[in-house]
Write a structure and sequence with these properties.
Strand order of the largest sheet: 1-2-4-3
CATH topology of the largest domain: Gyrase A, domain 2
CATH superfamily of the largest domain: General secretion pathway protein M, EpsM
Helix content: 40-55%
Radius of gyration: 49 Å
CATH architecture of the largest domain: 2-Layer Sandwich
Number of helices: 3
Strand content: 15-25%
Order of helices and strands: HHEEHEE
Number of domains: 2
Largest sheet: 4 strands, antiparallel
Distance between the termini: 127 Å
Length: 180
Amino acid sequence: MRINLLPPDERPLKASAIRWEFVVGAVGLCLLALTIGLYFSEQAKVKHLDFQLDQWEKYQPVLQRQAQVVNDLRVELRNLEGQKSKLEGLMAPLGQVQQIDEALALIKGEVWAETATWTGNRVRLSGYAANMTELTSFVNILEAAGLKVNITAARPEDAGSFTTFTLEIEGRAGDELGRS
């Protein structure tokens, strides 16, 4: 048997004994390594965020110019819509315009329209024809298209070289003015 005569403080530690100084040192080193790792990780994040901030600050004037362009376009759009509504107030209903277009599209031969006006549900068409035969052909074409035509004036001018006319044209029978 072995007897250790050294005082307890000076005796060598057992192999299974915990050395607290070593444990504290190891935990301290681990915390130091973790802190250094977190420091470098956060520094990388800060650099990345600084880079993104610089990029967005460079892009901000572009966005402001685009926003200004959009605002300018909105103002211009409002102005144009105001002009459009004023012009629509001055124009006749669409049906009347369509009826005038239909009547003018049927002009064939030597017939020329000088003025086209509308009042209520009628279109008044004034113009010239080379002769009465051309005018009669035009009236027949209008009636064949389903338009009601009333000749209000037809006068030969200057020894029969041309004929002036005024027609009143209404929409197709049974339809409202200008509806096909």
